[in-house]
Amino acid sequence: MKLWKISEKTKRAEGFNLRDDDGVIRSASSLTSLRIPVIKPMELMVEATPKRVFSNAHTYHINSISLNSDQETFLSADDLRINLWHTEITNQSFSKIENKTVFIRVENASLCVCVCVYPRNLITFYF
Question: Which entry of 3, 12, 69, 106 is 20 to 30 Å from 84 by CA?
């Protein structure tokens, strides 16, 4: 599971000292004067950059993610498991519900398709 930052850019900087207009890097010894970069408008560009990777928790496709009201923890759910995560701890989660044993034994067991945190109470959630 990856946390991405999505940003929109409508401006770009031009006129760098160590890079010419084509993007080729110039040596510092060839400079005769200093230029101040200029901000110019450009066509809207959406950029996605990965911020964190949360690993080793789900074996199935993730169906639902719900951010807690404390803005530090969130729940993620696949078909058989609900995990509690902290945004600063990326390599460890706490398994809240594991439905695998029930699903294997019971033929008509239901799968978890959605999880949601109750906004006023940090420890209450439904699925």
Answer: 106
